[in-house]
Each structure stands twice: as C-alpha cells, then as structure tokens.
Amino acid sequence: MNALNDEGPSLPVAQPADTTVRRRSLIAGCGAHAVHDGLTDVIYVLLPIWQAQFALSYAQIGLLRGAYSGMMAGFQLVASRAARRWGRARLLVAGTALAGLAYLLAGQAGGLSVLLMALLLGGLGASTQHPLASSLISDTHEAGGGVKQALSQYNFAGDLGKTLLPGVVGLLLMLISWRASVTLMGLLGLIAAGLLWWLIPVQAEPAAAQGKALTANPGRGSVGGLRALILTGTLDSAVRMGFLTFLPFLLQDKGAGTAGIGLALTMLFVGGAFGKLLCGYLGVRIGMMRTVWLTEFSTAVLIIMAVYLPFFGLMAILPLLGLVLNGTSSVLYGAVPDLASPGKREQAFAVFYTGTIGGGALAPVVFGHLGDITGAPFAVIILATTLLLTLPLSWYVQKGLAAEPVVA
C-alpha cells in the first residue's frame, strides 16, 4: 500500500476510475440488498392475508415461509459457483428479475400451489444476492481500502429495505388490493434488475476484481479461521432469531398489548439497523475480536435483563439491545474477505450466509421446543448463555486474521 502511495504520477489517472468503480459497486450492492431483503420480509405482511384468502392452515403458512427461506439458503453456494461461469453481474441481475417475476406470479395466484411455486422461484432469485453483492463490494473496495466500512453500509441497507418495503405494502393494503400491492412489488424487482444492469461496472466482474485482489493480498486465507467465523455467525444468527421469537411473549407477560409489542419491535429494529452500520466502523477501530466480545457479551447481559425487567425498563433498553444484537453481524461479514482466498470469495460468502440463515431458521424450532418444556424465560436465558460460545470462537477467528499471508 505504501509503495502504491509513493507512485505519484500514476495516481491522477488511475484514481478517478477506481473511485467510480467502488462507488457504483457499493450503490449496486446496497440497492440489491435493500430490495431483496425488503421483498423477503414483505411476506410477513402478506401471510395473514393469504391465510384468510385461501383458507390456509398454520402448517401451510409455515410451508410458504419455509419454501422461500429454504430456497434462498440452499442455492447460495450454487449461485456463487454459477457466477464464475456466467458472470457475477448477469447472475445478480437475473436473480433480482426472477424475484420480481415471482411476485408478479404471486399476484395472480388462485390457490396454494401457484403461491408455493411463486415463493420457490422468489427464494431461488433471492439466493443470488448475498454471496454476489457482498463479494462485489469486497472485491472492488479492497484495492482502495474501506472494505469493512463498505460492508457495514451494505448490511445497513438490508435493514433499511426490511423496514421500508413491508411498511409501504402495509400502507398500500389500505388503498388497493393485496394482488395489486404484490404486483407493484414485482414491478419494483424488475426495475431494480434493470438499474443493477446499468450500475454494476464491467471492471467489477470477478476475473478483473480478483486480479486486483491477488495483487493486493496474494494467497491469503485461513480455512480454520473461516470455519470458526461461520460457526460464530451461525450462533449469533440463531440467538438473534430465537430471541425475536420469544420477545413478543416476554412483553405480553409484562402486560404489553398489541400496540406495545409493535412499538417495542420497532425500537429494537431501529437500534439494530444503526448497530449494523456503527459496529462495522467500530470493528475497524478496535479490531474484530474486541468488537465481538463487546457486542456479544453485552447482548447476553441485556437479554437476561429483558427477562427480569418490568415493561418500561425493558422498553428503555430495547434500542441498545437492538444495536448490539444486530451489530455483531457487520463485524463478522467484514472478516469474510480476509479469511477467504481472493479467488473463492463468492463461495465463502455463500457458505457463511447459508450457515447464518440456516441457524436463524432452526433456532426458533429448537428453542421453541425448549420453551414448551421449561417456559419462555428459562429458554431465553439459555439463549443468552449460548451466545457466550462466540467469545472463544472469535479468538480463533482472530488467529486466522493474524496469520501471515502465504505468497504462492
């Protein structure tokens, strides 16, 4: 890096193009994350409507939600491999268009079978976003620096989409039918695909980006550190999803009504969105391991406090709890490019996201069963103590990050 900085004559020519590539890649990646995560969470708004419209059982509702999540998680690794053959930009654009087409199909559904097919297609399209958009940002920002900050912005954009699109659909449902609302979401997906095709620069394709990455960071990677990172992310996601499952019931036990539960969740999510942005920058300042220890230990303590505090006390700590509960993920995402060899970043991100999404999907089932046996408060305390397993794991991740690069 210092040698590059000393080459004065070459900088005025190269820098503008590099800056443009990084900026357009970041906007494209953040936009893709916001649209895909927003479309994914719109399903929560639509499930009660579909249940009433098509007389669905709770098992069928679970099938619909699981179909989308399962396809999204299961095909991420396939998407990362396919990107090497067909190109990252093409596959990301195609996946976004497919998600849009899936919503157009859902808007025409007359029963469970068509709705299920639409959500399977939507999940397949969504599987391209996490591994490809995140690797796009990490590859294009490495030479110019700021990759961890860029990934934290990418992470924040996803939460922004989760907040905005379900809210927009909720407002639309007061004015137009659910079919028209879903159709508009489908059109949004198609428009986003077109914008991504225009935004993603040619220089951001994997071959070019990886060539730069190899020059800047030759042969670096830690298989053991990456495995520890994936396990850390899986546990973090599992505890987050498990706690979100129990939180409405904890609030209910403290006397909260529907409005109080809705307000509490909003406070938690707002804190979480800013946590994803701020903790990424904190990780750059004090390091990955110290940030994870700070956020995970704080999360465990605050979750236990949530069990025992009265309603207003719990409401007071929810923004801070959201900040540390969600913030760890940005630090973990930022470590993926450092632990994966430059030529395998899409694959590393795909495996990482598969683990985190899978952990988040399984945790409500496992801890829900525990809650049936022991009661919700005890299950939540076990959740909090489970989170402490991430502390030694993050130390192992740090060892991988500290390893000297191996020059091939």
Automatic annotation (TrEMBL):
Keyword terms: Membrane, Transmembrane, Transmembrane helix
Example of a GO cellular component annotation carried by this entry: plasma membrane
InterPro entries attached to this UniProt entry: MFS, MFS_dom, MFS_trans_sf
Keyword Membrane: yes
Domain Major facilitator superfamily (MFS) profile residues, every copy: 1-402
Superkingdom in the source lineage: Bacteria
One annotated GO molecular function: transmembrane transporter activity
Membrane-spanning ranges: 91-121, 176-200, 228-251, 257-279, 291-311, 317-336, 348-370, 376-397
PROSITE patterns: MFS
Name under which the protein is recorded: MFS transporter
